[in-house]
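Hi R.,

Here's the chain you asked about this morning:
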Amino acid sequence: MTTTIETRHAVHYTQSEAMTGAQLRDNFMIETLFAAGAVNAAYTHYDRMLIAGVMPTAAPLSFGAEIAKTVGTDYLLERRELGLINIGAKGRVIADGTVYELDFQDGLYLGMGVREISFESADAAAPAKFYVNSVPAHAAFPSRVIAKTDAIENNLGDQATCNKRKLYQYIHPKVLPTCQLLMGLTRLEPGSVWNTMPAHLHDRRMEAYVYFEIPEEAFVVHLMGRPQATGHLIIRNEQAVLSPPWSIHCGSGTASYAFIWSMAGDNQSFTDMDFVPMKDLK
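And here is the predicted structure, written out as tokens:
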């Protein structure tokens, strides 16, 4: 089993505005999230969110000692909670002996205090891909599966503005209690390519995206930075991007795609957004 973890330190916007494209990628992107038979993780200094891609094949995977050492506790969820969504084939998560079967687009919440976590694919030739987010917690809430049908469906946008999409709220106060984690999935309709426009900020929360179902020859241009000094990142399939509280986070693809968004910070109000007028973007 291979477990790798890197640390991403917080960056001030004045630093980011002096960065080259390569430096922006080094600081804000996770370019290789999923690898067969491996756990790839990044520990961020944005609300201490930990991001991981877990792709089990023939053998089960678990979080190694490297990850517990990075968060400074005996095991990952000693003082944390965890959410995940499976964007691969059917798999299962075993948490303290309880088996959670997860199909494509099923989610799972694990509460603080769960000690032993392992990940398996139902078929090694068609592996599951568990996209994991973990953030600090102050209380233990019940663990549970969140199927796509359990998520709150929101129909947003319009074909005329190329941003017709379905937004599914998986880990949300109206679905289940958590300490601070929010998590959901957005899918662009055919012919739509813009997400989250007009752009917005929420200074009280960070956000992370993982983009997936991007065709091999396609990409997403992800806009980041202060509204008056935007930068961009070219995102390929199954790559993740970090969004500090001072940054917008929106993008446009050369084809339709999907992405998982997650947030942590001071509140859990999904509508706590400061929208940026389109004319103010530079």
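One quick note: The chain has one domain: 2-280.

Cheers,
M.
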